[in-house]
Amino acid sequence: MLSRLGLRAAPAALKSLAPSLSVGPFHTGQRCLAPLPPLPEKGGQVRHGLIPEEFFQFLYPKTGVTGPYVLGTGLLFYLLSKEIYIINHETIAGACVVGVLIYIVKKYGGDVAAFADRLNEEKVAKALAVKNDSINHLESIIEQEKKEQWRVEGRNYLFDAKRNNVAMLLETNYRERLLTVYNEVKKRLDYQIAVQQLTRRKEQDHMINWIEKNVIQSITAQQEKESIAKCISDLKMLSKSTRVAV
Amino acid sequence: MADRPVPLKDTRLLDVKLGQVPSWIAMRDFTPSGLIGAVRRGYDRYLNKYINVKKGGIGGIAMVLFGYVVVSYVWNYEHLKHDRWRKYH
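^ Those are the sequences you sent over. The predicted structure of the assembly is below.
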């Protein structure tokens, strides 16, 4: 349980005990890009916190279940009787310390383990969140890309519409200019016509004035008297004819 | 369960027959790099078995501390000899 807490601390501490070495064929192969296999769920089993389970399994075929315990008891009595393990003040101190340690481990081991598990799960959840975020982001990018590709298909219609617009503009412009040209030409032709008519009228007026002036000048006084006498005689004849008619 | 005969050099210690143990020991690599390599291998094996797991127990560290206690007791035995209760055992 403490090892769960010290997934970073314990290996670092233990690594400082053993010397680190950099000889030998380390890191010479190709970098393996496959993800590492996940950590095993449970470590090697340890009975009573001190003795690996393999020892019990090793003795089981020959001595059954109680074999290792009998071995342990015999070993303990041998050490005590031969005083290879000496009982002195340190034994009592050690026993008290061991008792307190066992009490603490039994009481708070589960809580510490749960805390370490939660830390680990938070780390994993953060990594998973990053991975999921990036996956979602990439998926949305893929969606947008597909949408852009769909839009590209409609590009032809867009260009046709634009081409139509441009053709319309050109046509309109051409027609406007045609109209302008027509108007200008018409104005010039109207001007010419107006000039000709004016000239003719002026010539007519001038001619009439000149003829009248000359005729009036040519009528002398003698001719006037003769013409007046002729008119009177004509009138007398006319009055006679009308009196007869009535 | 003996498949093809493996040379003695490559067998593991637990598979070596009792009579072959001295020759097996003689064949081991006792150069400094070999010794350090052996220590490194043992350390890695212990680490991967008891510490680099998802749900480790107290055993991983407790065994190391217990080994430390035992080794320190052995190294201090010369001092502790004077606290013996009886002279003759």
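The helical segments of chain B are 21-27, 32-50, 59-75, 77-80. Residues 32-50 of chain B form the longest helix (19 residues).

Shout if you want it in another format.
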